[in-house]
Description:
2 domains; two-stranded antiparallel ribbon
Amino acid sequence: MAGNKFIAYEFYSSAKMMEAKEQLNFQDALQKAFNKKYGNLPDQLIPKVGIGVDGDVNASRKLLKETLAKQRDKDSIDYGSALALCKSYLNYKTFSQLKPHIVQWVELKDKEKFITDTKDLKTKNGNTLTITIVRKKENTAPLPSSLPIISTQDLLMLFLAKEQRSIIM
């Protein structure tokens, strides 16, 4: 798996295969596929699963309709348009069937495994910085009482470095 970029499609395709192979309804197959895949994920990817499965159903539906509308009254379709149509259909189909169930399951699994602590900090120039700390429930070591002072520029550089590293992984 390449990070969590395509994890929603992995859940969907696994559920569809289980649905056909084991004669399950889609929701049961999706639950089974989710539990299997989520249980095998490395710890550093688990907190990002929610982002990967939280696709915008309305936006994907709108894009699918727009892509279809461009092909109306045409006798043939070029390769680029066919690819765009397939991609928009896949996005809509995947997220419309996953979203009602899987977002809740991710939240429940995350609550079972992690402690999430969110704090708002005011900066010197009046902006609010939200810090979210996610750690395993087994980690009972106390958190530091104060965070080191980090400039916004340094924080941005840390964020960009982390994002670049997660893209490479």
